[in-house]
Amino acid sequence: MKLVVNGREREVDAPPDMPLLWVLRDVLGYTGTKFGCGMAQCGACTVHLDGKPVRACVTPVSAVGSRAVTTIEGLSPDGSHPVQRAWAELDVVQCGYCQSGQIMSAAALLAENPKPSDADIDAALSGNICRCGTYQRIRAAVHRAAELKGGA
Amino acid sequence: MTAISRRELLAASGTGLVIAFFIPGRAEALLAKKPKPLPPPNAFLRIGTDNTVTVLLAHSEMGQGVWTTLPLLVAEELGCDWSKIRAEHALAAPVYAHPAFGMQMTGGSTSTWSEYDRYRTVGAVARELLIRAAAEEWKTDAAKLRVENGFVIGGNRRASFGQLAARASALPTPKKVSLKPPEKWTLIGKPTRRLDTPEKITGRAVFGMDVQFPGLRTAVVARSPVFGGTLKSFDATDAKKVPGVEQVVQVSSGVAVIATNAWSARLGRAALKTDWDLGSFADASTDKMRAEGLALSRTDGAVALSKGNVEASLGKGAKRVEADYEVPYLAHAPMEPLNCTVKLEGDHCDVWTGTQFQTMDQQVVAQVMGLKPEQVNIHTMFLGGGFGRRATPTSGTAREAAEVAKAANVPVKVMWTRDDDIHGGYYRPAFQHHIQAALDAKGRPIAWKHTLVGQSILAGTPFEPMMVKNGIDDTSVEGVIDSPYLAAIPARRVTLHSPRRPIPVLWWRSVGHSHTAFAMESMVDELAHAAGKDPLAFRLEMLKGSPRHSKVLQRAAEKAGWGRALGSGRAMGLALHASFESIVAQVAEVSVEPEGDIRVHRVVCAVDCGQPINPLGIEAQIQSGVAFGLGAALHSKLTFRDGRVEQSNFHDYQVLRLDEMPKVEVHLVKSHAKMGGIGEPGTPPIAPAVGNAVFALTGKRLRSLPFDLAWS
Questions:
Q1: Global pTM value
Q2: What ipTM was assigned to the predicted interfaces of this complex?
């Protein structure tokens, strides 16, 4: 089957029920998308399908169809997406393992809602677990990314 | 990017011209008791002709920030351009042994203080050599030269570190170097952003789980559903029918299913039939273990501390308070499930893993493979969280991966699923505390009798002979026997029961303090209320002989506005606890939802950790410690039924999520005390601070974790 990943069309040889996560990681080598739980509980595997956040660990590759897949590697060519810039500015990451998923969830939120409130951030990001507890800086960085995106 | 290509890239950036310094003396002198071989060249630092300065890390980056802190210590002395600094995990080798513990490891909140001298010395030696190289080249007196931002400067001449590197590398190492006085510091004590951020926000950071190279297979292992169970037989017929599954092999921990990819390996394991002899633990349950523990807690255990006649003093008290505190087994549940990649090739073996215990891993893999430790290369990858879980005295993760690679005769990554992680043992042990205390007529504590019941982390490990004395595993009673509160009570007795159970237990962020702080600070709060005194004033009275603790508590109280009126439905609670040679006080502001859910809105922290190195990192670690401890206080527990752990993933083993994160403020208390740790000390006080606030708000005393207000 064909998949469009980060703007590139890829021919993929994988069983249809293989989750997109493992196709990305083990077949195509995009290891920025992480495995954390395998049942859509932690958000570490969050990618975009046509800009909408999905949990790749429970998305069978056959369900992707023609929708464009964006992974952390394709969010920006050089780490300059406003969310990435805000993450760097506020020194958000610790171990970093969950951060691909956090950033993808945050980027999807800002695409929908350019000026999210704390409650909006809670709703959009509470599905992304961070065991290092970087939540306070994540919250601040989402607000900062909104400013950067709005050109403030 | 694969681990292999990343390494090749690093090698290529040197283009053979990279020079190396080696660092003698000073760090060794710290532990001069047993002689150690001199470190090999390029042990800690490489300066490239392109002016990059690469610092090799003896410790693992697991979120706590050594990737930035250790280079910062080098850079402070070296005087390099901070934008040119890089970090790299060092391969396992004796030279990287922990200065205090003698083996290469990361844990116990020790990386920064234990490397403070060694890594600064590395920078100072390199600086000295670069200056001498310039002096030689310019035929001038070294004393007239200085370093600035990656250059050696003398008069109107300047040369970059990269230009001087080759000449410097040929010079003899100075016998003695002097370190900068604090007033000349430009980096230490200043907020510095992390060096690993660019990789970690773009998906380029390579964690153990991300290691890939041609020919690498992925395996998952079917293990006994009950601790102590043994494999009777297995049938791999169906497992081998799963596309992608290549081999099924037996290893000492169970049966490994080896496939071309992780998904096929998991499907293969699901199709595998195994028959286990479940052993004697198969009828164990949390209820039974709790009942046994409760009975034990009414009897005297091994004596950890005894002063005065506690029974007589209890009898003389004007008021007596008795309470049972209890905490459950907990999994660390780091975001990156455990994994280890092993490739055996001729006379050597390469291991890629996120580990806190390089030396153990190296020895264990060598043993499995029949090699010498120096024939095993341990490549430390970024750790997707550690919290103690990647520091097992058995090195079980590495052992299992080595056994699988050997049995299957292919390079293999053994990965754990989240279920494997939650079911896999090495938990924070459950503990029960029974405490009786007495107050005199003026409300002053005069007696404290305390019995703890919980599994010893060190029993049965190689550390037992060294670290368990007279039946006391210090990690079981730390935070009690050294409590400044106990020091203020004339009659005190602490005893310990360490029941042996087949449940593997381990250090979990803050180790014994994760339960002792809860028991101590909740009980002290109970005594304050029993005495009819303000909880802050009562504590300060008890802390008269502990001025550092007292100051930290006062700072937190003052910054939180202790005693000020809060809106209705909110209250504050406080807790103070010293661990890993740092002191942390926290004031939590809470409310309770109608259905009993506890909301923590704000946590004000005061911290005395001695000399701060990177305040931005300290703030992050305290916030992190609070989040870790709060998740456990509000949600996490493991329970057993029929010998099996009942939880399996984040839906039933719940941890803190973003919508529950309080606003955590961190205030540093200046101190000239010896530098302490920072990765763990933020965790212990949060549970009692919240519990004490809930009591202030509702009058209900919560004595077991996780808190369950609806049921109490």
A1: 0.95
A2: 0.98
